[in-house]
Amino acid sequence: MMIYPWQHDLWNHMSAARERLPHALLLQGRPGIGKLDFAEALAAALLCEHPAQDGHACGQCDSCNWNAQGNHPDLRVLTPDDGGQGGDEDDAEAKPGKKSQVISIAQVRELAEFLNLSSHRARVRLVLLHPAEALNAAAANALLKMLEEPPPGVLFILVTHQPQRLLPTIRSRCNKMDMPFPERAQAESWLATQGISSASERLTYVGGAPLLALRMEEDAEKRLGDLHKELGHGARMDPFFAASLCAKEGIPATLEALQKWTHDLVSARLAGEVRYHMRQAPSLQALANGIDLSRLLDFQRVLHEARRTAQHPLNAELQVESLMIQYTQLFSTVRAS
Ligand SMILES: [Zn+2]
Question: H/E/C letters for each residue in the chain?
């Protein structure tokens, strides 16, 4: 069970308050900052029979052993049935192509029995629910009833990066905790300790979230680099070759890459600066200078619309090829102005 350097202050605060925790916590914050890891470390610490001085679980007692095996009798973890392979809370985004994920009312109902039991060992029983926005409407209502009449000695820990998608009545029943987002320097040095050599570039590309940067695979990073090189060719790009570079990424990742590239084209055109592609800044600027702005903004809207409907594309390959063709056409008929 690990927490991250940017979470230490919050951890100390929580450890000091462990005797008077509320009955429900909502850990909220951006994707890729380690919310779920924090929640799991907190759960382990609360269940541990001999927590260490710094508040962390000892890792050796019976309770910690059960926890490590994933079958602690005083802990229930609710996560979408077809997901739940560990990792951080945003796996659904990181691994496109997985089925849509829902926490069902059946899963919440199964909690009722657990809540009525008395604790096996620890003084608390815990329910860890992630990602909380995966609750469907019926499940959310069932959970709400439990939160309204919390059994003694039970702590609910909900983890979410989309709190606005939760029932307001659920939010109001929880003590909300804004999970810290690391400073840039801290995120970079942490990534360096994880053996990531291109920490700065990756962080820039993912918008600063260290776990997203960590999870960029080297293969994917290289393919992305190849795609950027192609996009840099502007009108001379071969749209079919560019589309073939995206075949492994899946539609959501491809659209994200195109959106970020286009964002930087717009930004270069309007403000002379880029946000995601520092290394390609000069070629982006050159491309942007020769582009028809209204076409570019149209293309940005097309991408946005495609992203909204990207979950079930009829033909992913065709869609990507079509977008690549539209991209090359941005540059093809610039009228003199
Ligand atoms: Zn322990």
Answer: CCCCHHHHHHHHHHHHCHHHCCCEEEEECCCCCCHHHHHHHHHHHHHCCCCCCCCCCCCCCHHHHHHHHCCCCCEEEECCCCCCCCCCCCHHHHCCCCCCCCECHHHHHHHHHHHHCCCCCCCCEEEEECCHHHECHHHHHHHHHHHHCCCCCEEEEEEECCHHHCCHHHHHHCEEEECCCCCHHHHHHHHHHCCCCCHHHHHHHHCCCHHHHHHCCHHHHHHHHHHHHHHCCHHHCCHHHHHHHCCCCCHHHHHHHHHHHHHHHHHHHHHCCCCCCCCCHHHHHHHHHCCCHHHHHHHHHHHHHHHHCCCCCCCHHHHHHHHHHHHHHCCCCCCCC
